[in-house]
Amino acid sequence: MSRLRVALIITVATLTNIANLQDMELLERLCSSDDDDLLYNQFVNRFLPDVEKECSRICNRRKLDSHVGKQIVHETFERVRKYKSFTKDQIKLANERKAIIVYLNRISLSLFNDFYNSEHKKEIVHKTYFDDIISPDSHTIDVKDLKKKKDLAVLIFKKLNKKEQAILLADIEHKRHQKYLPDNVLDNLAKDLNIKRDTVRKIRERAIQKIKQAIDEINEN
Known about the structure:
Shape: globular
Strand content: under 5%
Number of domains: 2
Helix content: over 70%
Radius of gyration: 20 Å
Number of helices: 9
Order of helices and strands: HHHHHHHHH
Distance between the termini: 40 Å
Number of strands: 0
CATH architecture of the largest domain: Orthogonal Bundle
Largest sheet: none
CATH class of the largest domain: Mainly Alpha
């Protein structure tokens, strides 16, 4: 039997095992595993409609752009994955699925409140995705270091495709004073690039992930 066939059999078996996990078991496994891609995808698939519904409801109530809700949906799951802080003793409801939905909704509400607070502060300047390039520790501004950071940022940016570059530039421009792209900006990007609005969000997330990966590689060297 070929190695490829063996690998496929193992992958299918793993997917089946994960699909058969109870909701609580799935969340606990996700929060205790570092190799969590399959677990995370399964968790998102199960609870995405519930989180989308709640975020849409909050957007309607607070009169926010729909894109804010969609981005917070994404960040809700990413926060679960990043912090892995969930423990079963946090559950207060007998119905475990409903309890997990309440847990996710609390995270979403916290993100909405963070967004509200940030929008009501004057002249907030958010970091760009390139600010995480590590600089040598110094109490003074090093012109050479700033130039090096700029050169690295340009190099990383050039590795993105044309659509990713266009969307990222718009995102950085608006990120200076607000966290999410307004609906009218999304509409214009979708029209200019001949793609759907949801595709703009997906390309944006893909571009950001590429930048983070490139910066991690640079900082490790």
